[in-house]
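User: Fold this; tokens only.

Assistant: Input:
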Amino acid sequence: MTKEPGHYRKPGRPKSAYGDKSSRSFYITDEANDALKTLAKDFGAKSASDLLEKIAHRDVVLQSVDVNRKSAKDEMTMQNRLHRLYQDPVAVFWSVLAFADRVSSQLGISLNEEELSAVVMKAMLMLFYRDYLQPDIYIDPIATWLRWYVLQILKCQAKDILKARDANPNLTYDLNDRFGNTIGGSAAEKQRKICISTIYSARRKLVKSDSPNAALNVLKLRIETRLSLGQIHMLCQDRYLEYTGLELVKYGLAKFRELWLNVNDKSNKIPEQEKNKIPEAFLYAELAQVKHFNVNNLEKLEALLIGGLMYVDYDSWANEIDYFFECLESKDNSAYRKKQETILFIINRDFENLLEKRKKELDKILFTRISTKKGLNRLSAILEQKVSEALGSRISPLDLNPLMPMRQIIDQERKKKLGL
């Protein structure tokens, strides 16, 4: 019987989008083989082997039912979210560690791995206290909130240094930045432009792509629509049964960084109209280059972080800028990379037990009977006490939640409209 055109097998080794294929030997039943072919059609794969290839590269996410799977509510507890931060793929947590290490150096504080780990874990505890004692407030984005509390802790430790620098501006007068570039020179400006344009091009590529990769699509959803992690998690829980929304965002960010991390051509230019939309990104990159911080630098950084607490996109830019400069730090510097990995190891080793211990202490306090009327004030007092203990100094309401004044203004306007 004559075969129809296009049905002849092409000679040579089969190819795919991932490279050359090789023959493998495995045994399955006829029923399973037929099911694989059907599934291949359902997922738009050319064949059963093409489907397996897509599954291996996570372009097709397997769906399975886990009877022990946590509910969406359990997955979104701060305890679980913090735990997932430092699990593989680490992704955004590298950015937080880079921020902590850089700012401690900019403030003139010399911290070893154990000390820097303690700072980050204190910030994580402060975030847990906020969530546990103010359950009506959803905390997102988590990375910028961690940056905010890391900064408050480091500011307390550098109080005397900052006073001296404020009194004598010459102490922070540097000719060169952290990377040896002349401050205000073309090399420093070029480095910032490369940083921003590289990340911008990768973001543009991601948004315009029609990738079959589930993790990249979920990350694109986060960047394009500015949805909260809670919303993304709810959208993903029925569609992707094997992975949670949180995991997909992590996998997506790790894959996204592949789009720009090893790019050789970093001469991409940003259109002027697009550049005018992201002045905060350029300023954040400029502050990342500063060698020694003064009070003015700190005020600018705090203002940028507050923007990141309100807008997911600001947080997204900060994550990638921190990671970009971390890559510059670690390039040809094995000691820096080893330090970061040691800090991650310490947090993996110690934080879960530390959090469980602090949670039990809190539960013991909260178990006492208090009236509904006094309950809210009691929770606020406990929150202030616990966060101040972690900070090592009494924390002001504004430092605890820098968004509070804005929320109050919005609420006042709302009540005014309602005639309340």
